Amino acid sequence: MLVHYLENTFQQKIDAETRIEPKDWMPDKYRQTLIRQISQHAHSEIVGMLPEGAWISRAPSLKRKQILLAKVQDEAGHGLYLYSAAETLGISRDEMIAQLHSGKAKYSSIFNYPTLTWADMGAIGWLVDGAAIMNQVPLCRTSYGPYSRAMIRVCKEESFHQRQGFESLLVLCQGSAEQKAMAQDALNRWWWPSLMMFGPHDSDSTNSEASMQWKIKRFSNDELRQRFVDMIAEQAKVLGLTLPDPDLKWNEERGHYDFGKINWEEFWQVVGGNGPCNKERLDARKKAWEDGAWVREAAVAHAEKRAARKAAVAA
Ligand code: FAQ
């Protein structure tokens, strides 16, 4: 009876667009769904540093190196805000990291693809950050307060990321024939995986119904994917590049671009741990965690020493 009352009051708050805050009552499934989504989002930001991080030492100029360094640092910051937001729901950072390392928690499929050329840095900014913004701007209005507030800053930074990616590709596209071919090759490899970032079709999306009712998600996976295709198809014209999809065609009646079939078999293989770089990415994260153990130990020892000193002064 009481639970029924609490659930009704909770849904009324959601319907009235009142943000849910950490100390408010919430259904356990709402809490668990948020922990799942926010922690997976945080893991994606941290694992997402790896494909671009590999190019910092090989950037073609000081300017490009500075931009890439700043972008990769931003992704680290996003991961940290998101881990903090998830912690307000009662899970510890250590538990989340353990779930990533054991394979229990997912991270975005996109980061399991290799970065083969410099043009991939442009393609990631334009397409991957572009898809991230399309999905994350509505999350600024998500129903859980700490998540929605974290997303406001994240989206501002992602928008700079997308612009730098587009500009970097534009420079390549206006360069030599070889540079333009390199940009086209990067687009060919990143296009379909970018569409997969939005998740399975709505009919196969197991979490969507509850997440939409709770206003964690404001738009469905397919709606956001369609908006992304419509945006990128126009931007590709400015670059003079061709999207690798023979079925891409403006549909006057729908007012949207039609596009070809996504290879869902590939998507589920990558999500299941069998993508081109899954093992490499997880190994890199585990090694970073182990190599950083002394820093965490030193920080705890320092905090303990300070607390002991303060207690001694007070005594
Ligand atoms: N990869 O029922 P749904 C970034 C899983 S950050 C792997 O539709 P949901 C920044 C899903 O977890 C990119 N797994 O799930 C950056 C679920 O499995 P589960 C990350 C995926 O949660 C840029 C199952 O499939 N962004 O790019 C994927 O309602 C550049 C069924 O799916 C976010 O995390 C996938 N692509 O909708 C960094 C945004 N898609 O958990 C560096 C927040 C689905 O039940 C460089 N997250 N799955 O075991 C979301 O908006 C949602 O979680 C979705 C998925 C839309 C991703």
The largest sheet, given as strand count, sense and whether it forms a barrel, is: 2 strands, antiparallel
Strand content: under 5%
The CATH superfamily title of the largest domain: Ferritin, core subunit, four-helix bundle
- Class of the largest domain in CATH? Mainly Alpha
Uncertain spans: none
Notes on the protein architecture:
Helix content is about 70%, strand content about 0%. With about 325 residues, it is mostly helical. The chain has a two-stranded antiparallel ribbon with strand order 1-2. Helix 2 runs antiparallel to helix 4 and helix 6 (about 120-135) packs antiparallel against helix 10 (about 220-240). The termini are far apart. Phenylacetyl coenzyme A binds near residues 75 and 196. Pfam families: PaaA_PaaC. This is Ring-1,2-phenylacetyl-CoA epoxidase subunit PaaA. GO terms for molecular function: phenylacetyl-CoA 1,2-epoxidase activity.
List keywords for this structure.
single chain; 315 residues; mainly alpha; Ferritin; 2 domains; 2 strands; Ferritin-like_SF
Per-chain topology:
Layout: H1 2-15, H2 28-47, H3 49-53, H4 62-87, H5 93-102, H6 119-136, H7 145-173, H8 177-196, H9 208-213, H10 221-239, E1 249-251, E2 256-258, H11 264-274, H12 278-291, H13 293-314
Antiparallel strand pairs: 1-2
Helix pairs in contact: 2-4, 4-7, 6-7, 6-8, 6-10
The structure holds Phenylacetyl coenzyme A.
How would you summarize this macromolecular structure in one to three sentences?
This protein has 13 helices and two strands; from the N terminus they run H-H-H-H-H-H-H-H-H-H-E-E-H-H-H. With 315 residues, the chain is mainly α.
